[in-house]
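Input record (one chain):
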Amino acid sequence: MHQRKLGNDLTVSAIGLGCMGMSHAYGGQEEAESIRTLHRAIEIGVTFWDTAEVYGPFTNERLVGKALKGRRDKVTVATKFGFRIASEENGAANLGGTDSRPEHVRKVADECLARLGIETIDLFYQHRVDPDVPIEDTVGAMAELVKAGKVRALGLSEAGPETIRRAHAVHPIAALQNEYSLFTRDPEKKILPLCEELGIALVPYSPLGRGQLTGGLTSPDQLSEGDFRKNLPRFQADAMAANAALVETLKSLAEARGVTAAQLALAWLLSRKDFVVPIPGARKIKHLEENAAAADIRLTETEQAEIGEKLANVAGARYRPDQMAMTGR
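The corresponding structure, as predicted from the sequence alone:
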């Protein structure tokens, strides 16, 4: 597996693994099968794993912790804080808003370390910017964790340009995690140039459009009752129908190159900048292996432009208005 840099201190696999769907939001699966997938990831070099306290909540970190036993030195572990979780029951429905107060940051870091069963978090992200806490205070507390040896590098997720600059002035930010894919181009106008300027890696989550860019998800009827995507505008029947032609175009472009739609979508992201490190989710080993193979695909500038142009004009917003209000702060 090819390697890429996150800031100055972390070197990771060019394609990482988003662990959320193994136990949260998309229906989950049996723990034993998830652990087999995670262990296979190590074998093929997909060793940059992403989780968060809110996934479950807490269950995803515990799952990753179990898979790490005896293998800690082979994996770069990223997790996230930033929500007020009222209790462990009822999952994400029981969130109580954002909380990035310094005392909360310190408390959550210790709890994440315990659930993961590790001594140091490689990359610690603020999951969403807290409008009630100055970013300088939050990053200051995160920087204290670095000094204490509990965290190696710092990250932000879905932060706006001004916040990123202010945070980076307090302590170097190694990575910014944003939604970015052929279906979500939001970061290209301001975020990509800023990351390049400041030496910050961009870690795209949902790089396969939450499954639509694989070509295998064509109707909301395919989603289970508890699937988070059922409530997203882009996964309503009319939007999915409108985007079907785009997905078919991607499949045709991929077939012409002898690769899958998912592989071409990931290769396109990797081609954008050498500091882009996508973290596609994969619950099954076959999907994990398919995604990993995308790191070997090289696209010319002409191919990049053609793919980007033909997959433009996606229908449906990526989030509801209340969810979008939590991004770009």
